[in-house]
Amino acid sequence: MTATVFFAVLLAALLHAGWNAVVKGGSDKLASMAGMSIGHAVPGALAILVLPAPAPEAWPWIAFSVALHFGYQWFLLRSYELGDLSQVYPIARGSAPVIVTLVSVAFLGAALTGQQLLAIGLIAIGILSIGAARAGRAAPQAILAALITGLFIASYSLADGIGARLSDSPVAFFGWVAFLGAFPFALYTRLKRPGLLLQLPKAAPAAFFGGGWASFTAYAIVVWAFTQAPLALVTALRESSIIFAVLIGALVLRERVDLARAASVFLTLCGVVLMRLAR
After folding, report:
1. N or C: lower Cβ tally within 10 Å for the chain?
2. Residue pLDDT, tens place only, 212-224
3. Rounded Cα gap, residues 157 and 266, in angstroms
4. How many other C-beta atoms lie within 10 A of the C-beta of residue 28?
5. What are the domain boundaries of the chain?
Protein backbone atom coordinates (compact mmCIF):
# COMPACT_ATOMS: atom_id res chain seq x y z
CA MET A 1 0.00 0.00 0.00
CA THR A 2 1.50 3.33 -1.06
CA ALA A 3 1.73 6.33 1.26
CA THR A 4 -0.91 8.16 -0.81
CA VAL A 5 -3.44 5.36 -0.41
CA PHE A 6 -2.56 4.89 3.27
CA PHE A 7 -3.13 8.51 4.28
CA ALA A 8 -6.17 8.87 2.02
CA VAL A 9 -7.85 5.96 3.82
CA LEU A 10 -6.94 7.48 7.20
CA LEU A 11 -8.68 10.69 6.09
CA ALA A 12 -11.70 8.59 5.13
CA ALA A 13 -11.60 6.98 8.58
CA LEU A 14 -11.74 10.39 10.25
CA LEU A 15 -14.68 11.48 8.11
CA HIS A 16 -16.45 8.18 8.75
CA ALA A 17 -16.14 8.47 12.52
CA GLY A 18 -17.45 12.02 12.29
CA TRP A 19 -20.67 11.12 10.48
CA ASN A 20 -21.33 8.23 12.85
CA ALA A 21 -21.03 10.69 15.72
CA VAL A 22 -23.57 12.94 13.97
CA VAL A 23 -26.06 10.05 13.84
CA LYS A 24 -25.43 9.00 17.44
CA GLY A 25 -25.30 12.56 18.75
CA GLY A 26 -28.60 13.56 17.16
CA SER A 27 -31.68 13.29 19.35
CA ASP A 28 -33.68 11.80 16.47
CA LYS A 29 -31.77 8.79 15.17
CA LEU A 30 -34.11 8.06 12.27
CA ALA A 31 -33.97 11.67 11.08
CA SER A 32 -30.16 11.66 11.34
CA MET A 33 -29.77 8.44 9.37
CA ALA A 34 -32.35 9.52 6.79
CA GLY A 35 -30.62 12.86 6.37
CA MET A 36 -27.29 11.11 5.92
CA SER A 37 -28.55 8.47 3.49
CA ILE A 38 -30.69 10.80 1.40
CA GLY A 39 -27.96 13.44 1.54
CA HIS A 40 -25.83 10.99 -0.49
CA ALA A 41 -28.02 11.60 -3.51
CA VAL A 42 -26.60 15.04 -4.37
CA PRO A 43 -22.87 14.15 -4.44
CA GLY A 44 -23.81 10.82 -6.00
CA ALA A 45 -25.65 12.58 -8.82
CA LEU A 46 -22.71 14.94 -9.37
CA ALA A 47 -20.33 11.99 -9.65
CA ILE A 48 -22.66 10.36 -12.17
CA LEU A 49 -22.81 13.52 -14.27
CA VAL A 50 -19.10 14.36 -14.44
CA LEU A 51 -17.42 10.92 -14.44
CA PRO A 52 -17.42 8.13 -17.04
CA ALA A 53 -20.15 5.53 -16.60
CA PRO A 54 -19.14 2.25 -14.96
CA ALA A 55 -18.45 -0.68 -17.25
CA PRO A 56 -21.43 -3.00 -17.91
CA GLU A 57 -19.82 -5.76 -15.81
CA ALA A 58 -20.13 -3.56 -12.71
CA TRP A 59 -23.90 -2.99 -12.80
CA PRO A 60 -24.95 -6.24 -11.06
CA TRP A 61 -22.55 -5.30 -8.26
CA ILE A 62 -24.09 -1.82 -8.07
CA ALA A 63 -27.53 -3.37 -7.53
CA PHE A 64 -26.14 -5.82 -4.97
CA SER A 65 -24.32 -3.03 -3.16
CA VAL A 66 -27.45 -0.87 -2.92
CA ALA A 67 -29.26 -3.73 -1.15
CA LEU A 68 -26.35 -4.38 1.19
CA HIS A 69 -25.93 -0.72 2.09
CA PHE A 70 -29.62 -0.50 2.98
CA GLY A 71 -29.29 -3.52 5.25
CA TYR A 72 -26.25 -1.94 6.87
CA GLN A 73 -28.06 1.36 7.42
CA TRP A 74 -31.09 -0.31 8.95
CA PHE A 75 -29.07 -2.45 11.37
CA LEU A 76 -26.74 0.43 12.24
CA LEU A 77 -29.75 2.54 13.14
CA ARG A 78 -31.16 -0.31 15.18
CA SER A 79 -27.81 -0.77 16.93
CA TYR A 80 -27.63 2.89 17.89
CA GLU A 81 -31.13 2.69 19.32
CA LEU A 82 -30.01 -0.15 21.60
CA GLY A 83 -26.46 0.84 22.59
CA ASP A 84 -24.07 3.78 22.73
CA LEU A 85 -21.55 4.80 20.07
CA SER A 86 -18.43 3.59 21.87
CA GLN A 87 -20.01 0.17 22.46
CA VAL A 88 -21.91 -0.58 19.24
CA TYR A 89 -19.44 0.98 16.81
CA PRO A 90 -16.44 -1.21 17.81
CA ILE A 91 -18.37 -4.48 17.64
CA ALA A 92 -19.76 -3.67 14.21
CA ARG A 93 -16.54 -2.31 12.76
CA GLY A 94 -14.11 -4.76 14.36
CA SER A 95 -15.74 -7.87 12.95
CA ALA A 96 -15.71 -6.63 9.33
CA PRO A 97 -11.93 -6.78 8.66
CA VAL A 98 -11.76 -10.37 9.91
CA ILE A 99 -14.56 -11.48 7.56
CA VAL A 100 -13.12 -9.58 4.58
CA THR A 101 -9.64 -11.02 5.20
CA LEU A 102 -10.90 -14.59 5.44
CA VAL A 103 -12.96 -14.28 2.25
CA SER A 104 -10.16 -12.48 0.39
CA VAL A 105 -7.57 -15.14 1.22
CA ALA A 106 -9.85 -18.17 0.88
CA PHE A 107 -11.84 -17.23 -2.22
CA LEU A 108 -10.32 -14.18 -3.95
CA GLY A 109 -6.71 -15.32 -4.04
CA ALA A 110 -5.32 -12.43 -1.97
CA ALA A 111 -1.67 -12.89 -1.03
CA LEU A 112 -0.92 -11.14 2.26
CA THR A 113 2.38 -11.20 4.13
CA GLY A 114 2.70 -12.24 7.75
CA GLN A 115 3.24 -8.62 8.79
CA GLN A 116 0.10 -7.53 6.96
CA LEU A 117 -1.98 -10.29 8.56
CA LEU A 118 -0.60 -9.34 11.97
CA ALA A 119 -1.46 -5.67 11.35
CA ILE A 120 -5.03 -6.61 10.39
CA GLY A 121 -5.27 -8.83 13.47
CA LEU A 122 -4.06 -6.08 15.80
CA ILE A 123 -6.53 -3.57 14.36
CA ALA A 124 -9.44 -6.04 14.60
CA ILE A 125 -8.59 -7.17 18.14
CA GLY A 126 -8.05 -3.60 19.27
CA ILE A 127 -11.39 -2.50 17.87
CA LEU A 128 -13.35 -5.50 19.16
CA SER A 129 -11.83 -5.21 22.63
CA ILE A 130 -13.21 -1.67 22.94
CA GLY A 131 -16.74 -2.99 22.55
CA ALA A 132 -16.04 -6.19 24.52
CA ALA A 133 -15.05 -4.13 27.56
CA ARG A 134 -18.67 -3.01 27.83
CA ALA A 135 -20.39 -6.04 26.36
CA GLY A 136 -21.38 -7.34 29.79
CA ARG A 137 -23.46 -4.22 30.36
CA ALA A 138 -25.00 -4.22 26.89
CA ALA A 139 -28.40 -5.52 25.95
CA PRO A 140 -28.07 -8.82 24.03
CA GLN A 141 -30.15 -7.27 21.25
CA ALA A 142 -27.60 -4.47 20.86
CA ILE A 143 -24.70 -6.92 20.51
CA LEU A 144 -26.59 -9.06 18.00
CA ALA A 145 -27.58 -6.01 15.94
CA ALA A 146 -23.97 -4.78 15.97
CA LEU A 147 -22.66 -8.18 14.79
CA ILE A 148 -25.19 -8.32 11.96
CA THR A 149 -24.16 -4.76 11.06
CA GLY A 150 -20.56 -5.99 10.87
CA LEU A 151 -21.60 -8.76 8.49
CA PHE A 152 -23.26 -6.20 6.23
CA ILE A 153 -20.14 -3.99 6.38
CA ALA A 154 -17.95 -6.90 5.27
CA SER A 155 -20.42 -7.89 2.55
CA TYR A 156 -20.76 -4.44 0.99
CA SER A 157 -17.01 -3.90 1.27
CA LEU A 158 -16.36 -7.05 -0.75
CA ALA A 159 -19.10 -6.22 -3.26
CA ASP A 160 -17.85 -2.67 -3.69
CA GLY A 161 -14.25 -3.77 -4.01
CA ILE A 162 -15.06 -6.27 -6.73
CA GLY A 163 -17.49 -3.93 -8.48
CA ALA A 164 -15.13 -0.96 -8.37
CA ARG A 165 -12.36 -3.01 -9.97
CA LEU A 166 -14.69 -4.08 -12.76
CA SER A 167 -16.12 -0.61 -13.28
CA ASP A 168 -13.05 1.24 -14.63
CA SER A 169 -14.50 4.26 -12.76
CA PRO A 170 -14.60 3.55 -8.99
CA VAL A 171 -15.97 6.92 -7.84
CA ALA A 172 -18.71 6.80 -10.49
CA PHE A 173 -19.45 3.25 -9.31
CA PHE A 174 -20.07 4.53 -5.79
CA GLY A 175 -21.89 7.57 -7.18
CA TRP A 176 -24.52 5.24 -8.61
CA VAL A 177 -24.65 3.21 -5.39
CA ALA A 178 -25.12 6.38 -3.32
CA PHE A 179 -27.71 7.90 -5.67
CA LEU A 180 -29.79 4.76 -6.06
CA GLY A 181 -29.38 3.87 -2.40
CA ALA A 182 -31.12 7.07 -1.33
CA PHE A 183 -34.45 5.80 -2.70
CA PRO A 184 -34.96 2.63 -0.61
CA PHE A 185 -34.10 4.48 2.59
CA ALA A 186 -36.39 7.35 1.61
CA LEU A 187 -39.19 4.81 1.10
CA TYR A 188 -38.41 3.20 4.46
CA THR A 189 -38.48 6.61 6.14
CA ARG A 190 -41.79 7.44 4.46
CA LEU A 191 -43.34 4.21 5.74
CA LYS A 192 -41.77 4.48 9.19
CA ARG A 193 -42.69 8.11 9.82
CA PRO A 194 -44.83 9.88 7.22
CA GLY A 195 -43.94 13.54 6.84
CA LEU A 196 -40.35 13.26 8.04
CA LEU A 197 -38.82 13.52 4.55
CA LEU A 198 -40.05 17.08 4.07
CA GLN A 199 -38.78 18.03 7.53
CA LEU A 200 -35.25 16.64 7.15
CA PRO A 201 -33.50 19.99 6.51
CA LYS A 202 -34.87 21.21 9.87
CA ALA A 203 -35.04 17.91 11.77
CA ALA A 204 -31.45 16.83 10.99
CA PRO A 205 -29.61 19.74 9.33
CA ALA A 206 -26.11 18.53 10.25
CA ALA A 207 -26.75 15.07 8.83
CA PHE A 208 -28.64 16.29 5.76
CA PHE A 209 -26.33 19.11 4.68
CA GLY A 210 -22.96 18.03 6.03
CA GLY A 211 -23.07 14.36 7.01
CA GLY A 212 -24.20 13.14 3.61
CA TRP A 213 -21.29 14.85 1.89
CA ALA A 214 -18.80 13.69 4.55
CA SER A 215 -20.05 10.12 4.36
CA PHE A 216 -20.01 10.12 0.55
CA THR A 217 -16.50 11.58 0.41
CA ALA A 218 -15.19 9.11 3.00
CA TYR A 219 -16.47 6.04 1.25
CA ALA A 220 -15.66 7.29 -2.25
CA ILE A 221 -12.03 7.45 -1.08
CA VAL A 222 -12.29 3.90 0.23
CA VAL A 223 -13.84 2.57 -2.99
CA TRP A 224 -11.03 4.18 -4.96
CA ALA A 225 -8.51 2.64 -2.54
CA PHE A 226 -10.06 -0.80 -3.17
CA THR A 227 -8.69 -0.54 -6.71
CA GLN A 228 -5.21 0.39 -5.47
CA ALA A 229 -4.54 -2.07 -2.63
CA PRO A 230 -5.81 -5.41 -1.25
CA LEU A 231 -9.40 -5.26 0.01
CA ALA A 232 -8.46 -6.68 3.40
CA LEU A 233 -5.82 -4.00 4.04
CA VAL A 234 -8.09 -1.13 2.99
CA THR A 235 -11.00 -2.45 5.06
CA ALA A 236 -8.88 -2.91 8.18
CA LEU A 237 -7.24 0.50 7.86
CA ARG A 238 -10.61 2.15 7.30
CA GLU A 239 -11.84 0.63 10.55
CA SER A 240 -9.12 2.49 12.41
CA SER A 241 -11.81 5.16 12.44
CA ILE A 242 -12.55 3.71 15.88
CA ILE A 243 -9.60 5.72 17.17
CA PHE A 244 -11.28 8.90 15.99
CA ALA A 245 -14.68 7.65 17.17
CA VAL A 246 -13.45 7.16 20.73
CA LEU A 247 -11.92 10.64 20.73
CA ILE A 248 -15.17 12.14 19.40
CA GLY A 249 -17.17 10.13 21.93
CA ALA A 250 -15.02 11.43 24.78
CA LEU A 251 -14.58 15.04 23.71
CA VAL A 252 -17.92 15.77 22.02
CA LEU A 253 -20.45 13.25 23.35
CA ARG A 254 -18.88 13.18 26.83
CA GLU A 255 -18.57 9.40 26.92
CA ARG A 256 -16.16 8.00 29.52
CA VAL A 257 -12.78 6.62 28.36
CA ASP A 258 -11.31 4.19 30.88
CA LEU A 259 -7.89 2.54 30.97
CA ALA A 260 -9.09 -0.60 29.16
CA ARG A 261 -10.48 1.40 26.26
CA ALA A 262 -7.33 3.51 26.06
CA ALA A 263 -5.27 0.29 25.86
CA SER A 264 -7.53 -0.99 23.06
CA VAL A 265 -7.06 2.21 21.10
CA PHE A 266 -3.29 1.90 21.55
CA LEU A 267 -3.40 -1.69 20.22
CA THR A 268 -5.37 -0.52 17.19
CA LEU A 269 -2.86 2.27 16.62
CA CYS A 270 -0.02 -0.27 16.74
CA GLY A 271 -1.78 -2.23 13.98
CA VAL A 272 -2.08 0.93 11.87
CA VAL A 273 1.64 1.69 12.27
CA LEU A 274 2.61 -1.90 11.49
CA MET A 275 0.48 -1.82 8.35
CA ARG A 276 2.32 1.26 7.17
CA LEU A 277 5.70 -0.41 7.81
CA ALA A 278 4.73 -3.84 6.46
CA ARG A 279 6.21 -5.01 3.20
Report:
1. C
2. 888 899 999 999 9
3. 25
4. 16
5. 3-277
